[in-house]
Each structure stands twice: as C-alpha cells, then as structure tokens.
Write a structure and sequence with these properties.
Helices cover about 40% and strands about 15% of the residues. By secondary structure, the protein is of the alpha/beta class. The longest helix is centred in the first third of the chain and has 23 residues. The strands form 3 sheets. The protein has a 7-stranded mixed beta sheet, with helices on both faces. A 4-stranded antiparallel beta sheet has the order 4-5-3-6, covered by helices on one side. A two-stranded antiparallel ribbon has the order 1-2. β7, α9 and β8 form a beta-alpha-beta unit. α1 packs across α2, α2 runs antiparallel to α3 and α3 packs antiparallel against α4.
C-alpha cells in the first residue's frame, strides 16, 4: 500500500493496457499479482527469481468462481462447482511483465517519484501550505519503512513530584530495556533512546516478540504512544503548571475529549489531575478502560460514553483545562497508515465536527481563565490552523503562544502564530521520525 502509486506508475509504463483487461474477476486478480510482484522486485529484498517465480506460481493456483474463467473444460478444478484457474495467456502475461520490470528496474524506478504515492489533492494541499522542499521532506519520511522498527513509550510517572525524579525513573527504565530482561524471557533490543519530551524510543530487534511480553508491561509503567501524540497533553500540563503550580494538580479537573485509546488520558492522570475522559464509541471506551486498568490509573478517571459536543460538566464541576484532540483525516500518521495518503478533497463531515466540538468546548465547558488545547494529527491547515482562526473570530478564547523551551526538542516546530506544527522528516535528530501533529 505504501508504494502503490509508484508501483502503478511502473505498470502503466510496461503494460500496453493497465489496469489489465480480463473477464469478471480476472482483471482484478491479475492486477493484484502484478502489484505484488513489482513490490517485491522494486521495494523489498526479495531475490528476483523468487519474486517472479512465486508470484506466477500463486497466479497459476488461483481459482475463480463459476462463470469467471475461460469456459474450457481443461481448466476445471476437481471438486464441487465450476471453479476455474486463471487462463494460461494471463499467467504468461504476468510472467513477461515481471521479467521486464526486473531487467529495467533502475530505469523504471527513476521514472517514479515518492510523491506518486500521495493523492494529487494532498500533494496540492501540502505544497500550498509548506512549499515544495518541505513537502518532499515530509513525503520522504512518510515513505520510510525503517520507522516501523521503532516504538515510542510514554512512562507512567504517577507519584513522582519533581523533574529530577522523573529523569531518574526514565534512566532506570532505559536500563531495564538495555538489559533486555522481562519477567518471562530474555530479549535483546537494538537501541534505547531517551527523547527530549521524556519518551523512550525502542528500536526492535528480531527476537523481541509481542509488545505485551516486553519488560514491565504487566506492571503498567509504560504505554505505547508516538512522540508527537504526547504533545497536546504536555502543552496542557505546561500551561496549568504555570497558572496553578504542579503542587496543586491533584485539586484540578481536566477533560480529555475523544479520549480513546487513552494515551493522552494516561499522561494527564500520571501528572496527578482528576480526568473526565469523553469518548463516543463504546467499543473504544472498553479499550480505554482496559488500558487504564493495566496502568493502574483508573481511580481518578471518570469515563463517559457520549459525543463530546453533547457533554457539559455538572454545575459544581470547575474545569481547569480541556484537551480537544478532534477526529481528523489522520494524514500525519501516513507512515503507519499509508492508506490515509490517498485521501481526496471529500473529508466528509470532519470539518463540521471539528468546528462544532471546538466551539462547544470553548463556549460551554471552559471556565474563564481556563486552558483549552486544540490538536489534530492532520497535516491539513483546514483541519488545524483554519479551525483555530474561526474559533478566535467568536471571541471566546485567545491564543497563548508556545514559548521556546516549553516543549523540549520542539522549538523549531513553533510557527509565527505561536502554534506547534510538527511535520514528519523536518525536525533534527531523533525527532525527524515522528507523526505529523498540530497543537494550539
């Protein structure tokens, strides 16, 4: 899926007609086989002979439902019904195409561009917002397959009152992973990095197994969360610290809208707040509760199954802060979810939902002098900066700009408005690899 655009570009060049023609499902099956073969030849480490031979062999053995074959009796497969194998001429066509791709692979690859894997709509939006050079950097990072070797962990610092204590705990957890020992087995990790925001980045090895078997998983001292996804909660924590002091966090009520799967909720609970977590999806709510139970953070959290724009606090509840991580196109997560890079201009009702949710929180939930953080994992300004501009026009909120040093490691992501705009592939060092995020 990640390289589908480049794969189709190559096949368009080497095939007289692409997608290939065939009766019924024949065309779709042949197209899938061609894509699979080209992916192995061009972007995976599969030896050429194996890529061609195995793809052709799979195609030969593929059967088609009644009425979809070529109708010849020698193509019938023994057993019930009239299932057919792929016609020999289509199998031969697949073999010839893949062999040509193998012969001409360098020239064919030069004809393509990583941008081919991103919809024309998104390309246009990115270039308009960030310019051509930054867009190229973003897309290059979104195409980086090696990123999947890294897993970012947030640490449960509940009960730790000072930054020094939190740093010592992070060092201890890094040492635990360096030892590669869990309660169940020994395992080796390729590297463990402390990120500026306090997360640990674990580079997986070949023998790490399931994440649920990693060190201290059952103890609930960490959870998986991309470094960019930690930013909205860090922003809210920073603002409330400057207003109330960290020693008063336990007295404060904060709200996490669209809370599941619970990473940001866990951050807020770990910092000492009482959290009301709002989530419209009952199934995702169950996952949220399971995660908080493992982390032993559920006691100070009220989970409410309800649409955020329909929820208001009780009369005696004073909301000091609210985190509004709205539903969005998720284009910033394209490295892990390459399907989102095929988005077109039809965003459904997302823009309307974002606007309604943000305005409802500002007008009906937020106390005077309280803090709201609006966030998206989208790279599209229309879901992010533009929504904030509309919110400001109503006059219910004003911007509190991010300050240098406020979110360690992310100073270069602060834009001219004081917003935090994180682009994959743009920040220096280890933060070059991260999801795209917006935070205000």
């Amino acid at each position: 899926m990640r390289r589908m655009g480049q794969i189709d570009c190559i096949l368009n060049h080497v095939c007289d007609v692409y997608p290939p023609r065939g009766k019924g499902k024949q065309s779709l099956i042949l197209q899938a086989a061609l894509r699979l073969g080209v992916a192995q030849l061009m972007f995976l480490d599969t030896p050429a002979f194996a890529a061609v031979m195995e793809t052709v062999d799979v195609l030969k053995k593929t059967t088609i439902g009644k009425g979809q074959g070529n109708g010849k009796s020698d193509n019938k497969v023994a057993g019930k019904g009239e299932r057919k194998v792929m016609p020999k001429q289509l199998v031969s066509f697949c073999n010839a195409v893949l062999r040509r791709v193998d012969r001409e692979r360098d020239e064919l690859l030069e004809m393509t561009n990583p941008r081919d894997n991103v919809s024309s709509f998104l390309q246009k939006e990115f270039i308009q917002a960030y310019g051509s050079d930054l867009t190229n950097k973003v897309i290059e990072q979104l195409m980086d397959e090696t990123a999947h070797q890294n897993v970012d962990l947030s640490l449960n610092t509940s009960g730790l009152k000072s930054e020094k204590e939190r740093q010592v705990f992070a060092d201890e957890m890094a040492e635990v992973f360096s030892d590669g020992h869990s309660d169940r087995e020994d395992m080796g990790f390729e590297s463990i990095i402390k990120l500026p925001n306090g997360s640990l980045r674990i580079k997986k090895g070949s023998n790490n197994g399931s994440i649920s078997k990693w060190p201290k998983y059952d103890s609930g001292v960490w959870w998986v969360q991309d470094v960019s996804s930690t930013l909205p909660a860090l922003a809210l924590i920073s603002s409330l610290r400057s207003i109330h002091g960290e020693e008063n966090f336990e007295k404060l009520n904060v709200v996490d809208m669209c809370a599941a799967p619970g990473g940001k909720t866990a951050q807020l609970l770990s910092s000492g707040f009482h959290v009301t977590a709002i989530e419209a999806n009952a199934r995702r709510c169950r996952r949220l509760l399971e995660n908080l139970d493992r982390l032993q953070l559920g006691e100070k959290c009220d989970v409410v199954v309800k649409y955020g724009q329909e929820w208001t606090p009780d009369a005696d509840m004073k909301v000091a802060g609210i985190l509004v991580d709205v539903p969005c196109s998720a284009t910033g997560t394209g490295n892990r979810r390459p399907d989102v890079l095929q988005k077109d201009e039809d965003l459904g009702n997302l823009l309307d939902t974002q606007e309604k949710l943000a305005h409802h929180c500002a007008e009906n939930v937020l106390e005077p002098g309280a803090v709201m953080v609006y966030a998206t994992c989208s790279l599209l300004p229309k879901e992010s900066e533009d929504q904030i501009k509309r919110l400001l026009q109503k006059g219910h909120v004003e911007i509190s700009p991010f300050l240098p040093g406020e979110i360690p490691g992310f100073d270069d992501a602060i834009d001219e408005n004081g917003f935090l705009r994180v682009l994959p592939g743009v920040l220096d060092g280890d933060l070059k690899q991260c999801d795209g995020f917006f935070c205000s």
